[in-house]
Amino acid sequence: MVVFALTYHSCRVSLRVHQNPIGKTNEEHVNSVPKIIAQRLLLGLLTLFVVSIIIFTAVNMLPGDFAQAILGQSATPEAVAAIRRDLGLDQPPITRYFTWLAGVLQGDLGTSFAQANFASFVGEDSGTRTTVADQIAPRIKNTLFLAGVTAVIAVPFAIGLGILAALYRNSAFDKVSNVFTLTSISSPEFFVAYILILFLAVLNPWLPSLSNIYDGMAFSDRLEKTMLPALALTLVVTAHMMRMTRAAIINLLASPYIEMARLKGMKPMRVIVHHALPNALAPIINVVALNLAYLVTGVVVVEVVFVYPGVGQLFVDSVKIRDIPVVQACCLIFAAVYILLNLLADILSILSNPRLRHPK
Amino acid sequence: MSDTLLRISNLKIEGRSDETWMPIIKGIDLELKKGEVLGLIGESGAGKSTVGLAAMGYTRDGVRITDGEVLFDGVDLVKASLPDKRALLGKRIAYVAQSAAASFNPAHKLINQHVEGPVRHGVMSRAESEEDAIRLYERLRLPNPQEIGFRYPHQVSGGQLQRAMTAMAMSCRPDLIIFDEPTTALDVTTQIEVLAAIRDIVDQFGTAAIYITHDLAVVAQMADRIKVLLRGEEVEEASTKEMLSHPKEEYTKSLWSVRSFKRPAKPAIQTDATPVIRLKDVNASYGQTPVLHDVSFDIHEGRTVAVVGESGSGKSTAARCITGLLPPTNGTVELDGEALPADFRRRSKDQLRQIQMIYQMADTALNPRKSVGEIIARPVEFYMGLKGREKRKRVDQLMDQIELPASEFYDRLPSELSGGQKQRVGIARALAAEPKFIICDEVTSALDQLVAEGILKLLAQLQDELKLSYMFITHDLATVRAIADDVVVMKDGRVIEQGPKADMFTPPHHPYTDLLLSSVPEMDPDWLTKLLEERGRDNVGDMATDKMA
């Protein structure tokens, strides 16, 4: 995940240096919004392409190989070679990359090795191989559901907390909320998860500790089962968003227009929510996007603790058995989510700037 | 009810510096009748704004009122609770800030900011207030009063914003408005429109006002009475007419006489001499936007050429072309008759050495982590190749020239210097390269008048000693009068008029030069009235429309 973050951000940073559309007062440098958005979209696609190369290279550099892993130490070289040929592993990497890329572009993420191999090893090709897409789709749905529930709880909670902390800055409330959010982000995720299980499932049996959700479940049941992992993730992501909200608002409180609002006799809450917050949106949106991306791509530990059938678990399992197509597909989806959310954040922060929304 | 609207007595205010509280205002008394305008003047650090804000019962972070009373219509704002104060602020006491561009919230339309006060204070409904805003915009002669409120602050020019802010202050028809340097950030021609608008509306509604400024000529137009402050204490107070004609205190007299510094212009140049700097049909653009059009002028040895014009006229861009920071798209810059490479990266070290620059904001132009000595030593070493003892000797010499003796100032950091001292360091740094030609970019506009005068004298003296040539970028015509030999007037990236100073200041002028010259406020309290009559009201309105971005 770090790799995506680095490549994507370095591209974004270099673009900013040239254009710097936000906060620049010089009209010459303000491009029209559709143009900027088109540029960002193109850049996003380019990033995704670069990331696909990195994913492919990295996955192929994983030690060990699927054929060897499945057949064990005693396998004959012929058997290994046969499986390799069957899966196309004997092709040179460049060929394999483009085959994969061509498939992806047509919406075909390939066939899971684990499924394919089983069929060909037994010798009967049933014709109903499980595709990677089939395998990942329900998991993605679950993961997005968990991320969505968490976002609905965490984003308003964090921003509200940040606003209150900025309003009552340096008060006991500010300090307590800072310590609380910092503690929860500093603790390992599994620890946060077990603490929640202890208090909300074991000592007070309010919520189920196992999140074994399945298709066809009623929405309310699904929500209930998802609640604990969502709460655990909320605790993990709140700190960043809350602290950025607080800092971005406080940063603006020395501005002349804030002083003006106070001198117009406006109440402190209105000064912060109506006068400071709209100008603090850009950094807040970016941090929210980073954390939402984390909710999709970085939730493996929490999924494991709560036995939640998300894409993170699938990803780890696939790495374990060297099921390369699944690993690659997961990586690519993670990267796409990451890029998409950052793109969205970029566009929203551009739109939050009235200079760009309403050119002269 | 008495006639007195505001009475401040024995007001003492402290400000925190590091961990100690230092007195800023040391016991000020002030009285304001209904409908009266009091001018509050003084140099920076005199505590004018602090007193102005305290009159609203407000202090900035790190500032506290320690003693005294601020009685507004019987309510002591020092002791009043926050909700009680909020009920008055914006409704009965309003504020107009120095920079309207910074004091309007960039995220909201002007009209929304205008109606906020009346609606929140329960004075008017939103619809009523919107209608009222349009009427106020009309009265303040803003162009398109029906429509201008529905723009965002960045879509409106500075002078118009300042009037919109005055309209906002008027929105609840307050009894008192604090004007805190409302025209300082504006060009002279724009300043007039704003001054006239403010004076009219204050007059019409009988609003009392405290008008804070450092510009005597401006305050003379606006105020009934003037109070002079110096380092948190009152120097004297009198009616405007009396204060101008018979100032009692020495300090006030010195303020009045600042504008008298003037040095004789040098005789006209022989036409065959090679100029130090020659701009020949220089064109330049930022991206696709052309900003300079066929700019040509010469700067001869030992002379000062003042380049004047309003903001956006291309003065600083011309300087950037000379230094090579912005390569011209067309035309050449010559040094001693030789064309310079357009881009500074392709110029030789000697060419770079010959052209130096002094900046407007000495604060940001000096590295805050380096001592004064190190700042000056750097170009001595870089350009002149001096090392060790010789370098130190040269730095000491330079520091003597700027009258900051090395024994005392060598190890100081810029943050430990006053504004004028910082500007002197900037001058020494430019001198260290032993240049022929120095660009002075608004070097005195951030300084108080007394300090600015010191800098101008120093520059003049250095010019005589070292045969320096200056390009003096400024929008302040008083500075031009004081120091220039020749004048170049720019507008919209073009040279409108140029010639020796004497010619420029004697009619007939180019109409634009005339407009610039006549817009400089004069000490005469009736100057604005006379000027407006001369120009005719409608003219001023037209100018405003012209200036729409």
TrEMBL record, chain A:
It comes from Thalassococcus halodurans. This is Peptide/nickel transport system permease protein. InterPro entries: BPD_transp_1_N, MetI-like, MetI-like_sf. Pfam families: BPD_transp_1, BPD_transp_1_N. Keywords: Cell membrane, Membrane, Transmembrane, Transmembrane helix, Transport. The chain crosses the membrane at residues 41-62, 144-168, 189-207, 227-258, 279-306, 326-351. Its main location: membrane. The keyword Transmembrane applies.
UniProtKB/TrEMBL annotation, chain B:
Gene3D superfamilies: P-loop containing nucleotide triphosphate hydrolases. CDD domains: ABC_NikE_OppD_transporters. GO terms for biological process: peptide transport. InterPro entries: AAA+_ATPase, ABC_Ni/Peptide_Import, ABC_transporter-like_ATP-bd, ABC_transporter-like_CS, Oligopep_ABC_C, P-loop_NTPase. Its main location: membrane. It is found in: Cell inner membrane. GO terms for molecular function: ATP binding; ATP hydrolysis activity. It is a peripheral membrane protein. GO terms for cellular component: plasma membrane. It holds the Pfam family ABC_tran. Keywords: ATP-binding, Cell inner membrane, Cell membrane, Membrane, Nucleotide-binding, Translocase, Transport. The keyword Membrane applies. The keyword Transport applies. Residues 6-256, 277-517 form the ABC transporter domain. Belongs to the ABC transporter superfamily. This is Peptide/nickel transport system ATP-binding protein. It comes from Thalassococcus halodurans.
